[in-house]
Write a structure and sequence with these properties.
- There is one protein chain.
- This protein folds into 2 domains: about 30 residues, no CATH class; about 45 residues, Arc Repressor Mutant, subunit A (Orthogonal Bundle), CATH 1.10.10.
- Helix 4 crosses helix 5 and helix 5 crosses helix 6.
- Helices cover about 60% and strands about 0% of the residues.
Amino acid sequence: MITATNRNLKQLVEAGSFRGDFYYRINVLPIVLPPDIVQGREQPLPNPSADVSLDGRKKRELIQALDQANGNQSLAGRILGISRVTVWNRMHRYGIR
């Protein structure tokens, strides 16, 4: 069961306005949300189209580095400033062989 409230239930229990036994049954795993989530976001959510263009740029840079390195993944990683494992992961993600 998930419950939510905008009131301080512990204070209400102490004041006698809320049943203590019920409070302790529902307060098993409290989840406290940050104020920006509760009150509304001040920052907009990430733009998925920006992620697509970023992926496109990373793919082009990887292909160019692999061309410069004659397919050598370690050298391509040094050109890009990333590890050989990251080069391999991006090759796999973008379908580059």
